[in-house]
Amino acid sequence: MAYAIRPFRTEDAASLADLTLAAIRTVGSQSYSSEQVDAWAARHPGPERFIERAGGGSHIFVAADDSDIPVAYSLLEPDGHLDMLYCHPKHTRRGLADQLLAVAEQTAITLKTESLYTEASELARPAFERAGYEVTQRRDFEIEGVAIHNYAMEKRLT
């Protein structure tokens, strides 16, 4: 299957919301408990949030399949924060995360952003490390009283 990386379109919003939840529930369960997955999933954005974010200056990059259906995405905020990187469970391990991170980085360089930063899940951490991000700290926190963790990561571009 061939994939294309393209900018977000408003009609992608529902697909991105659905694939985010599928990724959290399916892929997330590989490294997090069911209680942690439930808490994380409860915070996932609905379709309207993607439209708001795109309209607010964030860059959303979509990996689409042969039928132009979104199967993965990343969201880059104007300040260099890579807020989201999700891939539908049926499309993992195909290099999509690496491609999306590369497009986000190229965009950040064009915008003269000095560094990129993120909070990567246990599952996303290897993709960010392959892209040259370094862990600055493990973040232990709670969502609705459920302990969970991720990793603050950064990549200097200058």
Offer a few descriptive terms.
alpha+beta, about 35% helix, single chain, 5 helices, about 30% strand, 4-stranded antiparallel sheet, about 160 residues
Q: What's this model, at a glance?
A:
By secondary structure, the chain is of the alpha+beta class.
How would you characterize this protein structure?
The protein has 158 residues and is an alpha+beta fold. Helix content is 34%, strand content 32%. The protein is built from 5 helices and 7 strands, in the order E-H-H-H-E-E-E-H-E-H-E-E. The strands form 2 sheets. A 4-stranded antiparallel β-sheet has the order 1-2-3-4, sandwiched between helices. A 3-stranded antiparallel β-sheet has the order 5-7-6. A hairpin with a 2-residue loop joins strand 6 and strand 7. Helix 1 packs antiparallel against helix 2 (34-42) and helix 1 (13-27) crosses helix 3.
Set down the secondary structure blueprint.
Blueprint: E1 4-7, H1 13-27, H2 34-42, H3 47-55, E2 59-64, E3 70-76, E4 82-87, H4 96-110, E5 115-120, H5 125-130, E6 134-143, E7 146-156
Helix pairs in contact: 1-2, 1-3
- The total count of strands amounts to 7
Oligomer kind: single chain
> Which sequence of strands runs across the widest sheet?
1-2-3-4
Give the biggest sheet.
4 strands, antiparallel
Mean pLDDT: 94
Give the SSE string: EHHHEEEHEHEE
* Beta-strand content bin: 25-35%
